[in-house]
Design brief:
globular, 17% helix, 4-stranded antiparallel beta sheet, alpha+beta
């Protein structure tokens, strides 16, 4: 595994670990096996119990729960979405250079609607009826992606 800024991140946050899929007890075995095949490792804060980097949400629509995992593989990161929480339906999105400080979180429709009001963008954004994903480095600008009409769009 390439080091990137891992040493600095571990110095800044001693509870940050780059975990192998087998260490992620919150995932079913089939998803851990798929992440292993992809060569993924997952940055996780061991003392922070809020859902991050392995998240659940209704990312396609409000009817089924999906799983998203921040995957560090070599010099690249991506978000792997498991539609319906199954390994057979996986999609990798948002490929970017590896960054040990990067995190993902689930964003609820309520929060998305509040942000749209805050930004006075209610008319230019879709009606939020399912979850989105916040993605970005800790302490820096976070981007929010949302699945609308079968495509991922940046909304904030």
């Amino acid at each position: 595994m390439a080091q990137h800024n891992l040493s600095q991140a571990e110095s800044d946050w001693p509870d940050l670990r780059i975990m192998r899929p087998g260490e992620l007890a919150e995932l079913p075995p089939a998803l851990r096996a798929d992440l292993e095949k992809r060569g993924c490792r997952v940055p996780k804060f061991t003392r922070w119990h809020a859902q991050h980097n392995v998240i659940r949400g209704r990312f396609a629509d409000a009817t089924r729960e999906d799983v998203a995992v921040l995957c560090l593989a070599g010099d690249e990161m991506s978000i792997v979405i498991y539609w319906g929480g199954t390994a057979g339906e996986a999609e990798a999105l948002r490929r970017f250079p590896a960054n040990a400080y990067r995190m993902i979180h689930t964003v609820t429709p309520f929060v998305l609607k509040r942000r749209a009001i805050r930004d006075r963008a209610t008319e230019s954004l879709p009606p939020f009826d399912h979850d989105g994903i916040d993605d970005g480095p800790v302490g820096d600008r976070v981007e929010t992606v949302y699945r609308h009409a079968g495509n991922w769009i940046d909304v904030f």
